[in-house]
Amino acid sequence: MSAAILTFPRALPVVAPKPVEPYRQLPQWSRDEAERRRALIAPALDRITAGCSVLAAVTWLVSAPGWNGPSVRTMKRWVADYQNGGIIGLAPEYKGRTRPERGWEARAIELFNAPQRRSYSTVALLLRQEGYTDAADHLVRAYLKAQPSNLTETGQKRLGSHFYDQNIRPYIVRDTSTLPIGFVYQGDGHCCDVYVAAPATGNPFRPELTVWIDVRSHYVVGWWLSESESAITTLYSFSHALLANDHVPAMVHTDPGSGFTARVISDSENGFFSRFDIEMITALPGNAKGKGLVEGWFRWFEERLGKQFETFCGHCRTDDALRALTQKVRAGKLALPSLAEYRAAIAEYVRFYNNNPQRNLGDTSPAELWLKLDRVPLETPAAAIMRPRRTRTVRRWGVTLDERKYRAHALAGFEGREVVVEYDLHDDTYVVILDGDGRFVCEAQLVDKQAWIPQSRIDQAQQKRLAGQRKRLQVKIAEAEARAHVPISPAQVLAALEDSAEPAEPLPAAAILALGHSVGDVRTPRSLPTPKPIDPAEMARVQAVIADDAASAPQETENQRYARALRLMKQAKSGVTISSAELRWLSTYTDSAEYLGLADIHASFGYVPGLENDEGPAGTEPSLYRDTSESE
Fold this sequence. Notes:
This protein is 42% helix and 12% strand.
């Protein structure tokens, strides 16, 4: 667990890189060769320093008994290289084979850095499809692996901005050793990775744990276990921290979640924190490192406590084990721990954590540091800590709060003025009225309550949440029912023709345009006349025509059929003669769900995705498959 608050810098300082010594930039084999050459010419260099000429010194060295080194010419060149460039001059000039430019390098980096996170072979395949025939798999792989990592595998576009910020981008480490103990509390809510039996139904659910930790000492000052994160759970957990330690911090550090930024908590005048003059600091949205202390606490909480339960359902559990876990729970083969048992286990873990020495605290436990607290005791009675406040205007000697009316005779002197209403989360039979300076005025009693309102605000909040869950489930049901509708099959069309009217003659071009089916303008299909009976011979003729049209029709995709319809409507609009078979097909197709859906997409985006990739039937204009704006 980190001993510091981790936040991202808004702008990193620009520091000029230190120059690198040229000798250190050489590969190891080149440096070894340079050292070997300097050792060979060292005796000649000593004689040259003493006043001997280069030729004489080199000749003397080469003519020495047992010499098995380079020739006089080579040694003379090495001496000259060392005199002109030092040890760098003795390094071999061979730089290796120069890689030829193939033209696809920039495009390969672009494809590899896409959010799709393509593999090396996929990038090579796409390059070959774009016309780079020499983009072999091994060449593309070797080129990409030779590039800096920030241009390839750890690039921001490939990893995503959020992952890049949390795992790659540097951050500022805040020193917490300068903070007084008990000065800043850091809090957060966490959906526990353990299935627990719900108290009301016994069904499995995951409770919400809200924790407050002192930033300096890492001491867990308060926590609360509930069904979900909300303003109520924040009030309970923070009230527990205040009452358990009889201490008021100067600041709190939370995320910008709704459970911490609700007006009942964060309001500058009547919010819960403002009553104790506590300043609230919120971390950047999505920045887990901004609250590294409490996030790290939850990580080790699940590692050391959550994994002790058989009903642990964290992400680190394998998919097959997690699937078997849910099946066992649903079948009743696995006993779920009760909420009371899980709460007792959390209390025991908090006690262990607070008394366990930590290396980043100098091998001191959080509880030992917490004993050095310079306490700021509570001045508000404990009975008032659990009461949120709201501002209301007095009307008819009373106030209205959460659809409840409270009245008292003492409010006659405040008619038309704003007062502060302090209410109890559990008991709605009365409220405490305070003036603008926080002085007690009276206790107003509940005189009128609308029907079917729960007895407490906690129950009312639960009913509100239940209504929201029902609404979201109804939306999912409606979507599932809509997806269940399938297009009409040809067999259903033939069956319907047996009970329909005699088919009319093919509509003229002007009549087809009057149907209202055009790109971006989808209207309700026209109403049909009352069906008339037809004889079997006429029905057989219609079926034969349909079969001939189906046999002669080309095998087309959805985009190709849509482009074909656009072309026929364009020809009809310009007065070009259209065959009767094409008119029959167009009249049927423009009433289909396929056409209406593609027309809606075209109206919304100005084009149909994928239309430009489908080649149309023979004789069609390619422009219809690249740009459909002319048909609008």
